[in-house]
Design a protein that fits this description.
Layout: H1 21-29, H2 34-41, H3 45-48, H4 50-66, H5 70-78, H6 82-90, H7 97-103, H8 106-115, H9 118-127, H10 130-139, H11 142-151, H12 154-163, H13 166-176, H14 183-186, E1 193-194, H15 200-210, E2 219-223, E3 229-234, H16 235-240, H17 247-250, E4 258-259, H18 264-274, E5 278-282, E6 288-293, H19 294-312, H20 327-354, H21 356-361, H22 369-392, H23 401-434, H24 441-471, H25 483-504
Parallel strand pairs: 1-2, 4-5
Antiparallel strand pairs: 2-3, 5-6
Helix pairs in contact: 6-8, 8-10, 11-13, 18-19, 20-25, 22-24, 22-25, 23-24, 24-25
Amino acid sequence: MLHKGQCFGIIAPIAASPDAGYGGFFYRKIHLNTLIWHYLQKGGVGMVGFEEMRDELLERIEDLLKRKQYTALRDLLADLEPADIASLFEDLDEDSIPLLFRLLPKEPAAEVFVELDPDAQEMLIRGFSNTELKEVLDELYLDDAVDIVEEMPANVVKRILKHADPDTRKSINEILKYPDDSAGALMTTEFVDLKRDMTVEDALKRIRRTGTDKETINVCYVVDPARKLQGIVSLRTILLSDEDDTIDEIMETHVISVSTLEDKEDVAQTFSKYNFIALPVVDKEDRLVGIITVDDAIDVMEEETTEDIEKMAAMLPTDKPYLKTSVWETYKSRIPWLLLLMVSATFTGQIIARFEDALSAFAILTAYIPMLMDTGGNCGSQASVTVIRGISLDEIEFSDLFRVIWKEIRVAVVCGATLAAANFVKLMLVDKMIFGNPITITVALVICLTLVVTVFAAKVVGCTLPLLAKKIGFDPAVMASPFITTVVDAISLMIYFNFASLLLGI
């Protein structure tokens, strides 16, 4: 494994660079560049804010590329975080990315590679020599390697597996056997395991010997000869214990773990609940097979949130960034729900047609249909989104159904009364007196009563459907707007016309 000062690939160090020699040394070390010096004066890039300096960084990189100042480029990139470097690569010419990548030291290069989008990763892999590809693969953590393999086309995957070392290749294939949405697909097998009869001194020796290539050493896992999980012990505990203490004496035996087939969303919630940085994964026989780290849990949370937002917007979920998704793919993700909602909306038209006589006798009633439908849909969406969030955070269970309904009923009464009172004042002062609409007290009463009942019905429907969907095995997110809006529209119209028929005698 190379040290930070050693570079990946064959381009750096460059003996013949224009800034080589004493003058070049002075330029690199003293006048690295105005931008980096500015960062250092203010406490580093992180203190200034990467996004604030993004444009200047891009300009500086492009300028150095044109002048072939490769050593200065290497020094500039060395002061940036891998995620920031990957972000800069997205805005640079595609032809310059391989060059810049090869200027990076091996370990940072691997970290940058992980942060790149799949298209950039594929482009780099196709341009790598076999030696370069192996060097990158050797620096990757197993879970990152698995993620990359899952995103690549078959011919690229074949090449990756061909040049991975046998142990890595075996581990990748083992993890790929697990379902995509399971804990097994998220885990890495790179962790530090200890035996309970080890002394603290023995444990530290093992950590130093094996910890270099592990995902994390902050938490170590105690296993028996059959690899069954016995306990955990933090590095802090080990360091603060006497050298003669045994692991059995200092380990924590109450261990929270997840099974290989547990849903990844449940895994993410476990991280959120207990504030873990790593979570052990066991098989059916309670044997420790891997760990999941918090960075992977955060990725799951982001994916699940994105998926829920897309479902709530009546779209089929997609795992591609917006700008990377083709028009055809975007069309396919949207059209099924649009067709379904369009067909379901025809029921609304049928309700209006059924009460055509009422509308012809009191044409003014037509003007307030959009307001009633929109208000009902908004109220239903508010309730559904709130309940869906509670479900996703494990704050609400199906057993809480009646408590949720009772709460929303009380909210509906207060909201409905407020909206009805405000609407009554508007109808009599604005619509009637200013705009001259033929509004009578009875018509205003029909509209306001409809508003109260519609809000009530919308709140109940909005809080009930997500819980029922969860109970029968559907994703509650599909019960958010606009699905609930469509249901509430039909209910609000039926309430409206029935009140009109009752109070206006039509």
